[in-house]
């Protein structure tokens, strides 16, 4: 069979021994090598599907679930086909275990996670095969410098450490045997010495003299052999200590990589997820496997070192001037274990970063090595408290908190860790915590309560090794801003978003830079908007936002400009009473709640200024319109359109409707508003409006008045009072004289404060009363087509 037709798995099995071990190293509990081997043909037949699925795209979940379901079925069928083959009994058991594991851990809860693991394994396998084939075929020499996937490197190093641990275990057994042999020989020598002393004390007959000479020869020989044994034992001890030192050094390097790189990166990704960045929480399962392997290797080596110390105590021999390495090795490996345990007490599910008092919230804490170290045999308690920024600083400096020191009162703040046999996870989920009270620090200057950051402190204590080692562990949540009212939420999210995006690793809690380069701000805004609405921001959108944030839309390049925290969310925008962040947050909120579909299909331009909109529309045909976010109304969306009065020569102008807000869209959706206004014909640049918005129109049947418990459901239509082209004649009972019988389009100046209003002016009390009556009163004789769905509060 040629290489071009051989399967990837067959080619992988022909790799040199070192590369083949690397291939074996990429498969583990999460994706057993038996599944790869016995389902190789099926797995590779589905190669296109594996590659089509993006593990970080939640919209691919259903596709991934279907593929994982097929995989499980194939595994079960393969295992069943081996039911009558006794030689493959272990294989069948392994396949059954894999099918069960995939079903419980991935099928319904995280199919994308399993697809990601399989893709990673196949890609690494392919890279190794390609590298080897390039070398054999005289390919590009750069292939020899290919970097192995980080996961494969870690697995390979763990495999080496396991092998070293087995080797030192064998050497320790050999040392024990040699010590036993030495002890027996030493005992024999002692007997010879005792016998010799006895003979020497007897009458010196010929027989006794001969016996004495024989015993002296045996004594000399025994002492020579003992000296050789001592030398051998010392060499064995030193060689074993050196090997343990080498193992500990490798353990230290690998543990630093796993904890300081992989786990820290996971925590950083978790923090960025707070801003909406895609995040695969199941990467933690892989990290747990590595940490469990580390814990096992550390524990075995620590036990071996303690055994060496015990043997050394039984036969206390040491080379002249030699240094006993064992106490140092014991201390070092115990520190490694302590670091591993304390570092793997982590928050798997963070509490909400904007926390409202007297509101239920949840969090989950997990000990990654808890199952491997049998901590679950005496399940530890976890206690939660809330601490201030100053208290968090003191905790990091002193590694402990003063008893009872906290900054608030949390209900239901204790829980017991439980071990799940299926997932092999030791964790506790707090499902009903509630912050009752909060103690705030004194504010300085322009600081507000929404600038103040707290953190939840999770603490526990447990022992391992039958009480031999006791660990006090703690971990801090991501920064939390505490609010008491919903109107504090926007500013609170500004504080959290800035912290999540720009916190530096190893910082003093919870310091953040005062100024940040605009490209980093732009990335943060894009991430948040995409997470909230489903589609991110274009370069033009970001340029518009930069002009607004810096209060200077004329600048062409913002790349090297720094935006301050004050500009971001403290200082009001020019001629406005709200900040840049408040404006952006309101736009994001209205888009998420009411305009998500239209934003995702590109029907809403949104981030465009008034003057730019006028420039874009001035050369368009009459009836062309676009949708933009209002500069003056928080969360407002306005319709700008070109109108040409054919009854007057060259009478063309761009008009703006008074902005619609969430309250208006709750009464009548945007698409229906656009359908109501007949003079809106083309979405800019020239898309017929029915083509752009038709799929979002409310079906006619749902708009018809229906009786419900004796009430008549009103039908609402949007129209601009007095605007020609509105289909007022289709509603004969409409009071046309209500607005003074205006004909033709109203004159609208280019002043930003002048715009066409879709509603008459009411004060706030009248507005609220109107809404109440609209939903609760019976209007059998009134025609509702003059009522406006975007009925606005006074500006």
TrEMBL record:
<dbReference type="InterPro" id="IPR048988">
    <property type="entry name" value="STAT_linker"/>
</dbReference>
<dbReference type="InterPro" id="IPR013801">
    <property type="entry name" value="STAT_TF_DNA-bd"/>
</dbReference>
<dbReference type="InterPro" id="IPR001217">
    <property type="entry name" value="STAT"/>
</dbReference>
<dbReference type="GO" id="GO:0003677">
    <property type="term" value="F:DNA binding"/>
</dbReference>
<dbReference type="Pfam" id="PF02864">
    <property type="entry name" value="STAT_bind"/>
</dbReference>
<dbReference type="InterPro" id="IPR008967">
    <property type="entry name" value="p53-like_TF_DNA-bd_sf"/>
</dbReference>
<dbReference type="GO" id="GO:0005634">
    <property type="term" value="C:nucleus"/>
</dbReference>
<keyword id="KW-0597">Phosphoprotein</keyword>
<dbReference type="InterPro" id="IPR036860">
    <property type="entry name" value="SH2_dom_sf"/>
</dbReference>
<dbReference type="Pfam" id="PF21354">
    <property type="entry name" value="STAT_linker"/>
</dbReference>
<dbReference type="InterPro" id="IPR046994">
    <property type="entry name" value="STAT5_CC"/>
</dbReference>
<keyword id="KW-0963">Cytoplasm</keyword>
<dbReference type="GO" id="GO:0005829">
    <property type="term" value="C:cytosol"/>
</dbReference>
<keyword id="KW-0010">Activator</keyword>
<keyword id="KW-0175">Coiled coil</keyword>
<keyword id="KW-0804">Transcription</keyword>
<dbReference type="InterPro" id="IPR012345">
    <property type="entry name" value="STAT_TF_DNA-bd_N"/>
</dbReference>
<dbReference type="Pfam" id="PF00017">
    <property type="entry name" value="SH2"/>
</dbReference>
<dbReference type="InterPro" id="IPR000980">
    <property type="entry name" value="SH2"/>
</dbReference>
<dbReference type="InterPro" id="IPR013799">
    <property type="entry name" value="STAT_TF_prot_interaction"/>
</dbReference>
<dbReference type="InterPro" id="IPR035858">
    <property type="entry name" value="STAT5a/5b_DBD"/>
</dbReference>
<dbReference type="InterPro" id="IPR015988">
    <property type="entry name" value="STAT_TF_CC"/>
</dbReference>
<feature type="domain" description="SH2">
    <location>
        <begin position="599"/>
        <end position="700"/>
    </location>
</feature>
<dbReference type="GO" id="GO:0006357">
    <property type="term" value="P:regulation of transcription by RNA polymerase II"/>
</dbReference>
<feature type="coiled-coil region">
    <location>
        <begin position="151"/>
        <end position="178"/>
    </location>
</feature>
<dbReference type="GO" id="GO:0003700">
    <property type="term" value="F:DNA-binding transcription factor activity"/>
</dbReference>
<protein>
    <recommendedName>
        <fullName>Signal transducer and activator of transcription</fullName>
    </recommendedName>
</protein>
<keyword id="KW-0238">DNA-binding</keyword>
<dbReference type="Pfam" id="PF02865">
    <property type="entry name" value="STAT_int"/>
</dbReference>
<keyword id="KW-0805">Transcription regulation</keyword>
<keyword id="KW-0727">SH2 domain</keyword>
<comment type="similarity">
    <text>Belongs to the transcription factor STAT family.</text>
</comment>
<dbReference type="GO" id="GO:0007166">
    <property type="term" value="P:cell surface receptor signaling pathway"/>
</dbReference>
<dbReference type="InterPro" id="IPR013800">
    <property type="entry name" value="STAT_TF_alpha"/>
</dbReference>
<dbReference type="Pfam" id="PF01017">
    <property type="entry name" value="STAT_alpha"/>
</dbReference>
<keyword id="KW-0539">Nucleus</keyword>
<dbReference type="InterPro" id="IPR036535">
    <property type="entry name" value="STAT_N_sf"/>
</dbReference>
